[in-house]
């Protein structure tokens, strides 16, 4: 059975995940450091973890397997999910893969280094409606792939 995980703090596509979960009857774990309102859907389980760096990421990574699809903007978490055999999707619809995760980690590392030196790096692009549409397509495809795995 496919399981969906949302790295929920500041995730702009939670409602889209809920829709896909209902369509495929897939359980969803909404993981965050504080309470987040979730819809009254039996498939959706909110999980509040202790505050602290990477606590939510650790909770998700410890449970991710080949039947998991994780929604996250956190590149190191995406790397851990891929290593566990699962799939990871950025809220903009970008699918993390074994072929692109190394570049994503390197880019993140460069950005952190520049910021530590006082450089202003500009941050991520604004979230736009096309991102939401691309995300829905990517999530649907990921769930189908996960369902086909033995």
Keywords for this structure?
single chain, 5 helices, six-stranded mixed beta sheet, alpha/beta, Rossmann fold, 150 residues
Describe the structure.
The chain is α/β, with parallel strands linked by helices. It has a single domain (about 5-150), classed as Rossmann fold (3-Layer(aba) Sandwich). It is about 45% helix and about 15% strand. The chain contains five helices and six strands; from the N terminus they run βαββαβαββαα. The protein has a six-stranded mixed β-sheet, with helices on both faces. Helix 1 runs parallel beside helix 5. It is globular. The mean pLDDT is about 95.
- Main sheet, how many strands, which sense, barrel? 6 strands, mixed
Helix content percent band = 40-55%
Number of helices: 5
Work out the oligomeric state of the chains in this entry: single chain
CATH topology: Rossmann fold
The average pLDDT score comes to 93
Please provide the ordered H/E string of secondary-structure elements: EHEEHEHEEHH
Give the CATH architecture: 3-Layer(aba) Sandwich
How many structural units, i.e. domains? 1
Percent in strands: 15-25%
Counting helices, strands and paired strands, the structural category is: alpha/beta
* Rg result: 15 Å
C-alpha termini separation: 10 Å
**Strand order within the widest sheet?**
3-2-1-4-5-6
CATH class: Alpha Beta
Shape: globular
Low-confidence stretches: none
| Number of strand elements | 6
Task: Write a brief caption for the model.
This protein has about 150 residues and is an alpha/beta fold.
């Amino acid at each position: 059975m496919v399981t969906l995980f949302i790295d929920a703090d500041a995730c702009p596509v939670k409602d889209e995940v809920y829709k896909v979960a209902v369509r495929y009857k897939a359980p969803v774990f909404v993981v965050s450091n504080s309470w987040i309102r979730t819809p009254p859907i039996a498939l959706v389980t909110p999980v509040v973890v202790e505050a602290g760096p990477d606590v939510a990421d650790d909770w998700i990574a410890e449970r991710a397997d080949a039947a998991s699809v994780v929604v996250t903007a956190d590149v190191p978490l995406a790397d851990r999910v891929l290593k566990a055999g699962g799939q990871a999707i950025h809220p903009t619809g970008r699918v993390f893969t074994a072929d692109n995760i190394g570049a994503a980690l390197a880019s993140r590392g460069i950005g952190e280094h520049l910021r530590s030196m006082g450089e202003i790096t500009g941050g991520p692009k604004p979230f736009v409606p096309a991102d939401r549409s691309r995300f829905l397509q990517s999530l649907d495809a990921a769930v189908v792939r996960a369902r086909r795995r033995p």
